[in-house]
Amino acid sequence: MAVFTPLSDAQVATFLERFDAGSLVAVEGVPAGTENSTFFVTTDRQELVLTLFEQGEHEELPFFVELLDYLDEHRLPVPGPLHDHDGVALHSLADKPALLFPRLPGRHPHEPDLAQCRALGDALGHMHKVSQYFPGHRPNPRDLHWLLPMHHKVLAYLSHEDQLLMMDELEAYQGYFERLPELPQGALHGDLFRDNTLFDGDRLGGMIDFYNGCTGDLLFDLAIVINDWATHDDGRLDAERYAAILGAYQARRPLNANEVDAWPMMLRMTALRYWLSRLLVVYVDPPAHDLTPHDPDRFRTILKQRLAEAPLPLPAPAA
Predict the structure, then answer these.
(1) What are the residue boundaries of the Aminoglycoside phosphotransferase domain, all occurrences included (predicted)?
(2) What is the per-residue pLDDT for 1?
(3) Euclidean distance between CA atoms 258 and 182, whole angstroms
């Protein structure tokens, strides 16, 4: 159960009084997630999501509020947070930072079809097109500058083969990206896996959980998506999903020549990013709560497959 701080109906009802959101009808803990406490809140006027932030850097929460406000203003399918009567979104509840969001329609797609892939590619391309002008700044917390020092913490737990794989990859990334001209920059989701989207049929109801949001290489975000959305269990790319996502994305924001050149390396680096972060959770920094960590081997498999064969050609933008 991912409710680490329980709330009473009275606490939630009092909290709602700050907003123009209606009166409490029901509140229900959400048994999902790994870091924060989440509740579905029903009022006499609407359905909402209440999040209590249990861990992480709380001083960074204003960045996420500003980013969601910005994307919501640009008509992206994101949960723009509710602001109270004084225009304030971020509050404290049960001694934890708290945000209230509209509840977006849909469910997580476990096996996305091509229409869902096109919808996701279109939305991400739209987001990246407008996010280049977002004025906020938060450095990418999981880019190469993080990978280089953090990988030392897991080497002792790896086989000799995997130690060499990780060290050789990092050396390759460092040499490549130091020589590459700067790639297009903007605000990123940072973790846009299938379970961070909601679909109502083939319609994208929302992109959610922006708590890895940051600013950095737009290509980094796109590679994360492809490594999850368009990848089989054995690490191979799914040609149809790959083409659907990237074609729709490029109709909104075509990749430039430097991004096309960097694409194979970025797919490898983002695969290693998740292999390493999951290894750290298993061996070095287990979750504060009794939750099952994600399997690191999934992204080791993807990384090895990206090394074994070149990525599929980038498709032309969708018409």
Answers:
(1) 27-255
(2) 42
(3) 8
